[in-house]
Specification:
By secondary structure, the chain is mainly beta. It contains 6 helices and 27 strands. InterPro entries: DNA_clamp_sf, DNA_polIII_beta, DNA_polIII_beta_N.
Length: 356
């Protein structure tokens, strides 16, 4: 049937296996599809859960007959885990025999014709190459709303748009926002990604993109990812960004010494800031225990006065994206403070104060 180097098999399973369902009432979705042309030198391994499909193509030696068979993903992982230099697959009735090192594994199979196929309709509305775009996804995805957000389901997605000069990747849960951009000229577009699809695109590291009416396709050498498009809706996220008029800055390490203490001293996770000229008091308390710290302000606006309470976990997620020595926090107006902006290079994070 076919033979393949063990490391190549592991590579294909690591990529395509991300889309296979661990459990499903549709049994074939827990399988991976193996395809190769008779006498060919490549093997295509496909995983799909109906909303996400990943195809990994790796070198292999295909026998005299075409290969098109589905094997359980967990059984294939077991074959790869043996660590053999090469693996030989052969047919035996409705089963497949895998020989890896000193092991011989008999695996039940399903004909490949029964595997779900993705039907992409129409022509792409946008086609572009953007190496490095998927590296931005982890810097914003944490800000998206969780699966329990039902009132505004679009917040469970990431929003990717191009203004012609740069591609912006944005996520928000309504109280926190994170955005990053890649300066690259493309045609203008706007498209939502589910968090799961975006994280898979990032894991695979796709570089070339096609946007269709119902699907998004991403590719790099030897890998193709297809995901369903969520409904094309998102809020005007740019309007949420304040025009900074006031600002203060803190040493990043000093903030990271104090802010994580909310985990022990306040189950609600509230971190309160109150500025007094060049010093800012940070307090965390649940009424019976407390943390009080005074941090030096490295830089401030002439009329700046930082005062407010913030969600500790959200604040830490945003601080985790700032790599500069000092953290600059800016906002629009001291009299009516709204969302506070953190920025580091092309990355921007936004956090609204709590009403307490």
């Amino acid at each position: 049937m076919l033979s393949i180097a063990g490391n190549r098999l592991s590579e294909a399973l690591k990529i395509a296996g991300q889309a296979a369902a661990a459990r499903s009432p549709i049994d074939i979705l827990t399988h991976l599809r193996l395809q190769g042309e008779a006498g060919g030198s490549t093997l295509a391994v496909t995983g799909s859960d109906l909303s996400l499909t990943v195809i990994a193509t790796v070198p292999a030696s295909i026998g005299p007959d075409d290969v098109d068979v589905c094997l359980p993903a967990d059984k294939l992982q077991a074959v790869a885990s043996i660590g053999a230099a090469s693996v030989i697959f052969s047919r035996k009735d409705s089963k497949v025999i895998a020989r890896a090192g000193s092991c011989r594994l008999t695996i039940p199979s399903i004909p490949g014709a029964g595997y779900p196929k993705v039907k992409i309709e129409g022509t792409p509305t946008a086609t572009f190459s953007a190496p490095g775009l998927t590296a931005l996804i982890p810097t914003v995805a944490f800000a998206a709303a969780g699966p329990k957000e039902h009132a505004r389901p679009y917040l469970r997605n990431l929003w990717v748009e191009s203004d012609g000069a740069a591609i912006h990747v944005t996520a928000s849960n309504g109280a926190m926002l994170a955005s990053n951009c890649l300066p690259i000229a493309t045609e203008e577009f706007g498209v939502p990604f589910s968090v799961e699809a975006a994280e898979l695109f990032a894991s695979v590291g796709v570089e070339d993109f096609q946007i269709f009416e119902r699907h998004i396709v991403g590719q790099r050498d030897g890998v193709k990812v297809i995901c369903n498009r969520p409904p094309a809706k998102y809020f005007e996220w740019r309007r949420a960004l304040p025009v900074p008029k006031q600002h203060v800055s803190f040493n990043r390490e000093a903030l990271l010494q104090v802010c994580p203490l909310h985990r022990l001293f306040d189950i609600k996770g509230v971190v309160r800031f109150e500025q007094d000229y060049d010093v800012c008091s940070i307090s965390i308390t649940d009424g019976t225990q407390a943390v009080d710290a005074e941090l030096e302000i490295k830089e401030r606006g002439d009329e700046s006065h930082l005062e407010g309470s913030f969600d500790g976990p959200s604040l830490l997620r945003l601080l985790g994206q700032v790599k500069a020595e000092n953290v600059l926090i800016s906002w629009a107006d001291s009299d009516t403070p709204g969302a506070h902006l953190l920025q580091d290079g092309s990355w921007r994070g936004l956090l609204a104060p709590l009403r307490v």
